[in-house]
């Protein structure tokens, strides 16, 4: 059945587990995630970005969500909008059957001016007021996702050394988080704690903690009833990099967020863990393998099926690691 983010994460908080939120863009991804959830009796979050909506069409996504709910009626599924950038994109997602939306007012608030603060609080509050009327959950974001290693924010990454942000600027301020939640009434809060989007998070194998666990702990202590969300939480497994590169890919050496760090986060109030890059890598490795091993192959099912199997395996690993397995 379809459930809201609030319903799912309230249960996760009560039982102290985390839920991976996998990005989907197509039928193969939706089916692979649900097969994993079904085999482990795990509740699932499927999220679609604005890019996914443009790629697949809202009507296609809507019917795809209906379809997986019909195929797996016993699995609780939250359908979530990832990084909504305007109240209007949140409202159209709700019209398409999403049970949860992210209003990311921090996209425009990287400079951290008072005007950015007012903008973020204003748009987020506007969305929560409307969404809650219809029983839809809302995720907000406060902070700049970026690498503590490079000092680069998601907006600046790759633009050289200029404009590097300090540790302080890259991390969500706990007191501001309290104010933000009080003013906006969001159900879940995405925080900046040292992770960044995409495959290139860390250029060395992390030794010790790569995330600002103290920030997570402080925010959780001040806001025990708010569900924390970690973006940029792909682990970028070396095995997946190797498969891609073994079959003609050219990924540069890179490290993601270690699963143990996410598990520590879950002990401190992190309930939703966003994963897209690992999804992409799991599928692409198999597509490359099949096409390279058999260049005469031209039936898409021959490479999409192994891609789905690899994604299902990844999802099962995360459901086990985050304690989601058995909680449906
Ligand atoms: O945070 C962004 C997600 O990875 C979605 O990426 O906008 O390319 O679909 P996308
Ligand atoms: P990754 O790029 O680490 O998978 O992060 C995805 C994400 O945060 C989507 O909102
Ligand atoms: Na941000
Ligand atoms: Zn994100």
Overall description:
- This protein is of the alpha/beta class.
- It has one domain: Aldolase class I (TIM Barrel), CATH 3.20.20.70.
- It has helices spanning 5-15, 27-40, 50-56, 58-71, 87-95, 114-133, 167-170, 174-184, 213-222, 238-246, 259-267, 277-293, 300-321, and strands at 19-23, 44-49, 77-84, 100-103, 137-142, 146-147, 152-153, 188-191, 227-230, 270-275.
- The strands form 2 sheets. Strands 1-2-3-4-5-8-9-10 form an 8-stranded parallel β-barrel, surrounded by 9 helices. The chain has a two-stranded antiparallel sheet with strand order 6-7.
- Helix 5 runs parallel beside helix 6 (114-133).
- The chain is globular.
- The N and C termini lie close together (10 Å).
- Bound molecules: glyceraldehyde-3-phosphate (G3H), 1,3-dihydroxyacetonephosphate, sodium ion (NA) and zinc ion.
- The site of zinc ion has 4 residues, from loops.
Tally of extended strands? 10
Helix content: 40-55%
Helix count from the secondary structure assignment = 13
CATH superfamily: Aldolase class I
Classification by helices and strands: alpha/beta
**Rg over CA atoms:** 19 Å
Mean pLDDT: 94
Name of the CATH first level: Alpha Beta
Shape, principal axes of CA atoms: globular
CATH topology annotation: TIM Barrel
List the domain count as a whole number: 1
Beta strand %? 5-15%
CATH architecture: Alpha-Beta Barrel
Enumerate the distinct ligands.
Answer: glyceraldehyde-3-phosphate, 1,3-dihydroxyacetonephosphate, sodium ion, zinc ion
Summarize the helix and strand pattern as letters: HEHEHHEHEHEEEHHEHEHHEHH
């Amino acid at each position: 059945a379809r459930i809201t983010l609030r319903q799912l994460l309230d249960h996760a908080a009560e039982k102290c587990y985390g839920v991976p939120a996998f990005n989907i863009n197509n039928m193969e991804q939706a089916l692979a995630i649900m097969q994993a959830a079904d085999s482990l009796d795990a509740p699932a979050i499927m999220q679609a970005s604005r890019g996914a909506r443009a790629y697949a069409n809202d009507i296609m996504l809507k019917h795809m969500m209906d379809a997986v709910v019909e195929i797996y009626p016993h699995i609780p599924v939250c359908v979530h909008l990832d990084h909504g950038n305007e109240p209007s994109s949140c409202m159209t997602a709700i019209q398409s059957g999403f049970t949860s939306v992210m209003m990311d007012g921090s996209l425009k608030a990287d400079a951290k001016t008072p005007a950015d603060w007012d903008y973020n609080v204003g748009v987020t509050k506007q969305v929560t007021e409307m969404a809650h009327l219809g029983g839809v959950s809302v995720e907000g974001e406060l902070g700049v996702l970026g690498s503590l290693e490079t000092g680069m924010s998601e907006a600046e990454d790759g633009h050289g050394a200029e404009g590097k942000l300090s540790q302080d600027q890259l991390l969500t301020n706990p007191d501001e988080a309290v104010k933000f939640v009080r003013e906006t009434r969001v159900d879940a809060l995405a925080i900046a704690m040292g992770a960044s989007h995409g495959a290139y998070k860390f250029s060395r194998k992390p030794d010790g903690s790569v995330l600002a666990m103290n920030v997570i702990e402080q925010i959780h202590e001040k806001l025990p009833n708010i569900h924390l969300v970690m973006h940029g939480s792909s682990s970028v497994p070396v095995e997946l990099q190797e498969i891609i590169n073994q079959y003609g890919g050219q990924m540069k050496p890179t490290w993601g967020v270690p699963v143990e760090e996410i598990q520590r986060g879950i002990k401190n109030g992190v309930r939703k863990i966003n994963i897209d890059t690992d999804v992409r890598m799991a599928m692409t490795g198999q597509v490359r393998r099949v096409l390279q091993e058999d260049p005469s192959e031209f039936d898409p099912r021959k490479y999409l099926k192994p891609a789905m199997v690899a994604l299902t395996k990844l999802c099962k690993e995360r459901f086990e690691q985050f304690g989601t397995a058995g909680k449906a």
